[in-house]
What does this fold into?
Amino acid sequence: MHPYNLHAVRFWCAVMFAAVMVYLAGLHAYWALGGKWGSFATVPTVGGERTFHPGPLATWVVAILLAIGAVIVCGQAGVFAIGSWSPLFRLGAWCLCGVFLLRAIGNFKTVGLFKSVRGTPFAYWDTRLYSPLCVFLAVLAGVIASGRD
It folds into this structure.
């Protein structure tokens, strides 16, 4: 494949990755500010009880980390100049790949493709959206991280 085509592939992978991350960052900011839309199935439950109760601070931290993830992949893909920071952006992109892959695999109980707790709203959405999205994001981050210019 021509080097310019690889650059274009990495660029469009970064655009897709960043779009999802920015959307999710905004959604987490909305929740941190007290919004309720979509929050009914965001935390795993066991026996009808949430397994944890994220507060506004934790939700803001997730929003910020998601936004940072968007910046990392865009920098690694060459959307903007990163200069001597290149090794850190590459490492960051590989870390994002790993984090999303691990999230997709899950904890084998309440989260991920191999969870044992089923039949809850979270499990439904985790199987159909959250975990597949994490696989998709892991692949995009891997493509971006592995790029060579």
The helical segments are 3-32, 56-76, 86-105, 121-146. The CA atoms of residues 69 and 129 lie 19 Å apart. The first helix runs from residue 3 to 32. The chain has four helices and two strands.
